[in-house]
Write a structure and sequence with these properties.
- The complex is a heterodimer of chains A (about 550) and B (about 300).
- With about 550 residues, chain A is α+β, with helices and mostly antiparallel strands.
- Chain A has 16 helices and 20 strands.
- In chain A, strand 15 (about 385-390), helix 12 and strand 16 (about 410-415) form a beta-alpha-beta unit.
- Chain A is globular and about 75 Å long.
- Residues about 555 of chain A have low confidence and may be disordered.
- Chain B is mainly α and about 300 residues long.
- Chain B is about 75% helix and about 0% strand.
- The longest helix of chain B has about 35 residues, at about 85-120.
- Chain B is flat and about 85 Å long.
- Chain B starts with a helix and ends in a 7-residue tail after the last helix.
- The chains are: A alpha+beta (about 550), B mainly alpha (about 300).
C-alpha cells in the first residue's frame, strides 16, 4: 500500500539522524506539568463501555478508569484483590463468593454487588450486542443467555447482599480469577444508565465525559474526538492514596512513526501499551537505553484449510510445517526478537510446558513429502497462501515461500488481500493457506487451544476431531491443575500431528520508556496500569528494574 | 450570468444523484462487513448489530432510507465510532481540514504568485531562474518527504514547533507548509507562464501606448491575464488540498477528515464513507462552478450562454 511506503519513507527521514548522544532516544527530562504523564493510545476507541468494548484502544482506558472484583498485578499479572477484598471458593471450584469492600462510584453513589450482577447480565444480553459476549460464557447459563434462549436473570450470578456476590461457573476454570481482570467484567453504573433513560438520553452515550461515572483510579475529564483524552486522579477510588500521578493526557496517534517522533520530541513520556515500534527500525532503536522488549502472549501462524486439496493430505501439511526455518525467519525477517515456535500455545503460559516440536527439519520434511505421494515438490498441485496486506506479513510470506521452494521444491503462490476482504475469505474457508495471529485474552493455554475446537468460529482450518474436543472438555472439568495441563498437552499433540495450523513464532512487544517514567514492568499481556506509574526525574531507570509493588492486603481464603 | 448559475445549479442535482447511487453501490459491493473481525461474533449478536444500523433490510429499502435521511441532512451512524453520528464526525473534522487547507492555500498563493511575478517581470535573469528552480524543487518534493524533513529540523533539532498534533496555531504551521508547497510551486509556474503569454498581446501594448506606468500595466493588466490559468487551477487544487490532505494529516496526526477517506473504506464504515464522498462531491461540484464564474469576472472575453 502506497501510504505504508510513504510513512516508512517519512520515518526513515525523521530518524536518519541520531538525536543528541545521551544514549536515549530523544529528550530525557519531563516536558509537561509535574506529576503529569503524556502517552499515546494508538487510536480512537470504539467503545469505552466495558461490556461492549472489543478493542485494545478502549480496553486500555477502561482498565484505568474502572475497577473490577480483582486486578492483575502490574508485573506478574497474578490476580489480586481490588473491589473484592477476599473470596471463598467451593470445593468443586465452580462457585465463588466475593466479599466486596465498601466503595463508591466517582459521583459518590455506593458501589454494590448489584452493579456487578447488572454488568455481567448486560454483557450477555443479546440486546447489548457485545462483540465480547462470549467472554461471559464462563458463567453458568451464559451461553444460553447470549443466544437469547434464556433470560439474563437466569445467569448464575447473584448479589447475596450489597457487599457479597456469588458467581457460579460452567466449568471449574483455573484461570477464572485472571480472566476476571479483563475489562468486559468491570461493574456498570446502573444508576447512571437509569438516569439517562429517565432524561431521554441515548444510553450508549454514558461514557462521554459529560455523563461518565466510573470507579477506577482515574476519571475522564476531557475527550476531544481523535485528539486527546484527559484523565485526573479519582479521589473516590478506594485505593486513591496509592495512585501516584495527578493527570494523564492521552493522544490518539495511529501512525507508529508519528508516535515515535512525538516520543523523540518529548511530547510523549511513554508511547503507551497500544503503540508498537516500527519493525524496520527495531535494530536501530534497540541500541538505545530506553528500549525495552518482552515476550507477548500471542502466536503467529498459518491456517491450513484441511479440506482443500492438496492440503487435505496431512503428510503434506506436516512436510510444509517442518520445511520452515523458524530461527532464520525470526532473526533475518521479523527482527523483533520474536520467539520461534512450532507450537500453538506459547511456552510457559500459566505453567504450561510447550510441546517443543522441531523448529526446522528439512530431511524429515522431504521424507514426509515422499510419503504423501509426491516424488518431487514440482508434482504438488498449485497452492496459494493468502495474507492481509501489510509489509511485515509480505516479508514473512516471501521468506517462507522461498524456504518451501528450497527445501521441498514446492511452489506456493502469494496473494495479499485488504483486511476486510481477507476476513471474509478466512471466514468462508475460501483459501488453502492463510496467515493469522492470535492474542491470548487470559494467561491460560485454553485461550489458544480453543481455536482448534470444532465449535469455535475462529477455527478457519475446517479441521475437527472429537478426540481433541473431548480432551479439552475433560481438561476444563478437571479440578487438578496439573492433570488439566497434561490433558492440554495431549490435546495439542493430537492437533499438531494433524497439522491444521502451522505455528511460526510467539510475539514480543517492544517499547520505549523515558528514563524518568517509573513503574512500568514488562509482562506477557503488555498491561501497565497507570496507577502504579510515577515520575522521578532524579534517578534514571535504565533497566526497568523498579521493585514491583506488593499485592494489596488480603488474598484468597 | 444569473441564468447560467441557475442552470448549473440545477444540473448539480442529477450529477449528485448519480454520485450517491454509484458510491452506495460500490461501497456495498465490496466484500467484507463493518462488523467482521479476526474474532468470531456470534450470529445473534451480529443480527443485533446489523439491525441497529438497518443492514438487515433489503438493499433497495436501505438505499431509499439513506436517500430520505440524506435529504433531511442526516448522514447516519458510524459503525467504527458507534457513539458518533457521521454528521458529528464531519462537523468535528471538516473545520480542521478546512483550516489546514486554508493555511496551505494562503501559503501557496502568496509564495506562488510572488515567485511567478518575479519570474515573469525579470524574465531570463538570475531572479527568474532562481524562482523557477525553487518551483521545480517544490513540485518534485512530495509531502511525505517534505513533512518529515520539516519535523526533523524544526521540531527535533530546533525545538521550535511541535512535531504533530492539533490544538493551537503552532500545530498548523508545519502541516500547512507541507501541504501548500507543492501547490505554491505549480502556481509560480502558472503565474509566470500566464503573464508571459499576455505580455505581448494587443491589450497590453494598448495599455503601455496610452501611457500607463509599468507598475499599473503589471498589476492591472498583466497579472489579471496571468492569473487566469491560476484560477482554473485553483478549483481542482483546493479540492485536491482537501481530499489530498490524507498523507499530511496522517504524518502530523491531524484530526481532519482526510484519513477517513481511506480508513472508513477499509473499515467498511458504510455511512461514514458515503458521508465523506457526498461531502467531497458537493465540494468539487461547487468549486467547479465557482471557477467558471470567476473566469468570467477575470476575462471579459468569456460570455455565459
Amino acid at each position: 500500500m502506497p501510504l505504508a511506503i510513504f510513512m516508512g519513507l517519512a520515518a526513515a527521514l525523521t530518524l536518519g539522524c541520531r538525536p543528541a548522544d545521551t544514549g536515549y532516544f530523544g529528550t530525557t527530562t519531563p516536558r509537561h506539568g509535574p506529576n503529569e504523564l503524556w502517552i499515546n493510545n494508538g487510536g480512537e476507541p470504539e467503545w469505552l463501555d466495558p461490556n461492549k468494548c472489543a478493542d485494545g484502544n478502549g480496553g486500555e482506558i477502561i482498565w484505568n478508569t474502572f475497577a473490577g472484583l480483582v486486578q492483575a498485578h502490574p508485573a506478574t499479572l497474578e490476580p489480586m484483590p481490588e473491589i473484592a477484598t477476599h473470596w471463598d471458593v467451593s470445593p468443586d471450584r465452580r462457585t465463588y463468593t466475593f466479599h466486596l469492600r465498601p466503595s463508591t462510584w466517582s459521583d459518590g453513589t455506593p458501589l454494590t454487588a448489584h452493579d456487578f450482577v447488572f454488568s455481567f447480565r448486560r454483557l450477555l444480553d443479546p440486546k447489548t450486542a457485545s462483540k465480547y459476549a462470549t467472554n461471559g460464557h464462563i458463567f453458568k447459563g451464559g451461553a444460553a443467555v447470549s443466544r437469547g434462549e434464556a433470560p439474563p436473570e437466569s445467569l448464575g450470578v447473584r448479589a447475596v447482599d450489597d457487599l457479597t456476590l456469588a458467581v457460579e461457573l460452567e466449568d471449574p476454570l483455573p484461570y477464572f480469577l485472571s480472566f476476571l481482570t479483563f475489562y468486559s467484567f468491570m461493574p456498570i453504573p446502573r444508576h447512571l444508565l437509569a438516569e439517562l433513560d429517565r432524561r431521554g438520553i441515548d444510553e450508549s452515550l454514558w461514557t462521554r465525559p459529560e455523563h461518565v461515572v466510573s470507579n477506577g483510579p482515574y476519571r475522564m475529564t476531557e475527550w476531544t474526538f481523535r485528539q486527546r483524552m484527559v484523565f485526573e486522579r479519582n479521589p473516590k477510588y478506594w485505593d486513591a492514596a496509592h495512585v501516584k500521578l495527578d493527570r494523564i493526557r492521552v493522544a490518539m496517534v495511529e501512525s507508529y512513526t508519528t508516535a515515535l517522533t512525538m516520543y523523540a520530541a518529548g511530547e510523549f513520556d511513554w508511547p503507551g501499551s497500544n503503540t508498537s515500534l516500527p519493525a524496520e527500525f527495531m535494530d536501530y532503536l534497540a541500541t538505545f537505553k530506553d528500549f525495552r522488549r518482552h515476550p507477548y502472549l500471542a502466536s503467529y501462524f498459518y491456517w491450513i484449510n484441511t479440506q482443500a486439496p492438496p492440503l487435505d493430505n496431512p503428510r503434506l501439511r506436516r512436510a510444509l510445517a517442518l520445511a520452515i526455518d523458524r530461527q532464520a525467519l525470526v532473526r533475518h525477517v521479523c527482527r523483533g526478537g520474536q520467539i520461534p515456535s512450532a507450537d500453538l500455545v506459547p511456552d510457559g503460559v500459566a505453567g504450561y510446558r510447550g510441546l517443543g516440536r522441531p523448529l526446522f527439519d528439512p530431511a524429515r520434511a522431504r521424507q514426509l513429502l515422499a510419503e504423501a505421494g509426491y516424488a518431487s515438490g514440482a508434482d504438488v498441485p498449485p497452492i496459494t497462501l493468502v495474507y492481509n496486506t501489510s509489509e511485515g506479513h509480505k516479508q514473512v510470506a516471501e521468506a517462507i515461500q522461498q524456504m518451501w521452494k528450497d527445501v521441498l521444491g514446492v511452489t506456493v503462490e502469494l496473494e495479499n488481500q485488504e483486511w476486510k476482504v481477507f476476513l471474509a475469505t478466512a471466514e468462508m474457508h475460501n483459501f488453502q493457506l492463510c496467515r493469522m495471529g492470535w492474542t491470548g485474552d487470559y494467561a491460560d493455554p485454553f485461550t489458544f487451544l480453543e481455536l482448534l475446537t470444532s465449535a469455535c468460529g475462529n477455527n478457519h482450518s475446517t479441521w475437527s476431531d472429537p478426540r481433541y474436543d473431548g480432551l479439552l472438555r475433560e481438561a476444563n472439568r478437571d479440578p487438578d491443575p496439573a492433570a488439566r495441563l497434561a490433558k492440554f498437552r495431549e490435546a495439542e499433540a493430537v492437533a499438531l500431528e494433524a497439522q491444521p495450523v502451522i505455528p511460526l513464532y510467539t510475539y514480543t512487544r517492544t517499547q520505549l520508556v523515558k528514563p524518568y517514567v517509573r513503574g512500568i514492568w514488562g509482562n506477557h499481556q503488555d498491561r501497565h496500569p497507570w496507577k502504579y506509574i510515577w515520575i522521578d526525574a532524579s534517578t534514571p531507570s535504565d533497566t526497568a528494574a523498579d521493585p514491583p509493588p506488593p499485592a494489596p492486603g488480603e488474598t484468597a481464603s | 450570468m444569473t441564468r447560467f448559475v441557475l442552470r448549473r445549479l440545477l444540473e448539480l442535482v442529477p450529477t449528485a444523484l448519480v454520485i450517491v447511487v454509484a458510491s452506495f453501490a460500490l461501497v456495498r459491493l465490496a466484500p467484507g462487513s463493518p462488523f467482521s473481525s479476526e474474532r468470531e461474533i456470534p450470529p445473534e449478536i451480529r443480527r443485533q448489530l446489523e439491525a441497529r444500523y438497518g443492514f438487515d433490510r433489503p438493499l433497495p429499502e436501505q438505499f431509499a432510507r439513506y436517500l430520505g435521511n440524506l435529504l433531511r441532512g442526516d448522514l447516519g451512524l458510524s459503525t467504527k465510532y458507534p457513539q458518533r453520528s457521521v454528521n458529528e464526525i464531519i462537523a468535528d473534522g471538516f473545520p480542521v481540514t478546512l483550516t489546514l487547507a486554508g493555511v496551505a492555500l494562503v501559503w501557496s498563493l502568496v509564495v506562488g504568485i510572488t515567485a511567478g511575478i518575479i519570474g515573469a517581470v525579470r524574465q531570463n535573469t538570475v531572479w527568474d531562474h532562481g524562482a523557477m528552480a525553487a518551483a521545480l524543487v517544490g513540485i518534485s518534493i512530495p509531502s511525505f518527504v517534505l513533512g518529515p524533513v520539516l519535523v526533523l529540523v524544526v521540531s527535533l533539532r530546533w525545538h521550535l514547533l511541535p512535531p504533530a498534533g492539533w490544538g493551537d496555531w503552532r500545530h498548523v504551521i508545519l502541516p500547512g507548509l507541507t501541504l501548500g508547497t507543492i501547490y505554491a510551486a505549480s502556481i509560480a509556474r502558472l503565474t509566470r507562464g500566464g503573464m508571459l503569454e499576455v505580455v505581448r498581446s494587443d491589450y497590453i501594448r494598448t495599455a503601455r501606448a496610452k501611457g500607463l506606468s509599468e507598475r499599473l500595466v503589471i498589476w492591472r493588466h498583466m497579472l489579471r491575464g496571468g492569473l487566469l490559468p491560476v484560477v482554473s487551477y485553483l478549483g481542482p487544487a483546493i479540492a485536491s488540498m482537501l481530499t489530498g490532505s490524507v498523507v499530511v494529516e496522517k504524518i502530523f496526526n491531524i484530526p481532519g477528515i482526510g484519513p477517513y477517506f481511506v480508513d472508513a473504506a477499509f473499515n467498511r464504515d458504510y455511512f461514514l464513507v458515503m458521508g465523506i464522498v457526498v461531502l467531497y462531491a458537493f465540494f468539487l461540484l461547487v468549486m467547479n462552478l465557482l471557477v467558471d464564474v470567476a473566469y468570467g469576472l477575470l476575462d471579459p472575453r468569456i460570455e455565459y450562454s
